[in-house]
Amino acid sequence: MKKLESTLPNMVIVLTLIAVVAGLALGYVNSVTAGPIQEIKAQQLADGIKAVLAADELNVEEPETLDDGSVIYRTDKGVAVQATDPNGFGGKLTVLVGFNSEGLIQGYQVLETAETPGLGAKAGEWFQKGQKGDIIGKQAGNLTVKKDGGEVDAITASTITSRAFLRCVNAAYAALASQEDAQTGATQRPHSLTSPEGEE
Question: Which helix (H) or strand (E) holds 180?
Fold first, then answer.
């Protein structure tokens, strides 16, 4: 077989063919894996809702997506709200927060993070019940780290991540409160979803 002459047109043709074949291969792999990836994400979300509401079984209503991107999942065991903050130390941070009927935090799960392993990535455990930054059972809305005058211990050497995490939790609460306002009217808002100080 005669060797292809190394000219500019020949190199362009070969590179074009390689790019087309690689593009087709990537497209095929994407189409094959898209379905299973969506199923895995859906299962992780379902497991997350159960975890943050401390329930083995629950019935989830159709989710409500708000203008700010928050998503509310109402269930027969409480409400889970997904909120995102774009300003974590490593980028976007997405947290799922469970609230009981009184509006107190039942649990949380970090769904997406780009934080530093070993530091900011500790958010998944740091704020859980019995841990240093425990927020379980607290009223959300105005949670801040001690460095900012609040009552929550920040993750050691990860104040930026801790602030982003608490902004997610507060945003989740605000999203839930805004929907309660829309459904019942601000003057009839249940006591459980009033501001943490009990003022409107």
Answer: helix 159-184
Residue 111 near residue 94, CB atoms below 8 Å: yes
CB atoms within 10 A of CB 16: 10
Q: Are 172 and 95 in contact (CB under 8 A)?
A: yes
At residue 167, the 3 state secondary structure works out as helix
Is 0.90 surpassed by the pTM of this model?
Answer: no
pLDDT (tens digit per residue) in 175-184? 999 887 666 6
Distance of CA 5 to the CA centre of its chain: 55
198: Cα within 13 Å, side-chain hemisphere: 0
Q: Output the DSSP codes for 83-139.
A: EEES-SSSS-EEEEEEE-TTSBEEEEEEEE--PPTTTGGGHHHHTSTTSTT--TT-B
